[in-house]
Amino acid sequence: MPSGSSRRTFLTAALGTAGAVATGGAGFGVARATEPGPAPAGAVVGFYGAHQAGIATSAQEHLAFAAFDVTTGSADELARLLGTWAAAAAQLTKGRPVGAVETAPDAPPIDTGEVEGLGAAQLTITVGFGPTLFDDRFGLASRRPAALAEIPALPGDTLDPARSGGDLCVQACADDPQVAFHTMRNFARLARGTAVLRWSQLGFGRTASTSTAQDTPRNLMGFKDGTNNIKAEEPHDLARHVWVGDETDQAWLRGGSYLVARRIRMLIESWDTAALAEQERVLGRAKGTGAPLGERREFDPLDLTATKAGMPLIDRTAHIRLAAPATNAGRKLLRRGYSYTDGIDASTGLLDAGLFFLAYQNDPVSQFVAIQRRLARHDALNEYIRHTGSALFAVPPGLSGPGDWWGRDLFG
User: SS3 letters for 195-250?
Assistant: First the structure.
């Protein structure tokens, strides 16, 4: 049976073939390579570009997210894994198998095969590096960006270490849940001997729109979520709030971003007993229309000065007020979170469900941490949610083409 090293060598070699599947060789016993027909029109999101797809890309309906711990102490092996993943991602995002199709019965197939016939389903694959990757193991300590600091303890956090942190992350978004899961499954297989899964999260139903062409979705509380999110059609906001620029102390991260991942459990049973007026007070929006309280339509301007009977129309502790850029020195985040459910909490018999919050920004200290610290202290929504997982990753820029891989400039 081919060794893991041989498989990685085979896949890394594919980086130089302009996306074509390699034929034979590498001891795989491959009868011949096959090139599946083109995916349905509009189903493929370009893999190469200045920025990684899956950030400003129109948000898909399903998510598979994984954090990995690197187990090797070799920088060369880590770099080889990142090259292997890049070769695999170039194939998967086109709706193709990870590698050549094998017929040898005495070796496991390179690709697990569960997405045959499903197409690309708008799959995007986004990779990031956690703060712990920059310890003494790989000689990268001097390449760690100053902004890639562990998120400090925030008021009200009830974080589970087993659902937090990680050396590497992989975010796979697609319009088919099996296509998204297939990426996480095969990346974990390709990582064997080099990295292991630390934690993972599946998400269903996007909770934000990242394009003006998308309707605003509803979260599990039944409210429209992310009305004022940064959109792909807003390059000024993307440049100002999302993409890392010349301000960074690490040139390898220019064109990249920072990703904050938070697992936010909703206390659904408690929320479901709250009166409609209370729910709307807490969020600051009308549940039906999504409009700010006092307005008629979802996208009506947010008026934080409006009063009724001498009191603020939007409560001083309403989530919409405390999260608004107007009350946070203009700071914004690009959100692309998902709803999740992990069954029943055995200790309470209550649903374990909520929001898997994903947000991109170019300075997590002045953006996420500053905003969340304020929310954690004053937000009325805190009565109905618990933050149970947390992680921060530096997301490098996009790949230039076949032969490039995540972190190439970092290891150079």
Answer: EEEEEEEEEEEECCCCCCCCCCCECCCCCECCCCCCCCCCHHHHHHHHCCCCCCCC
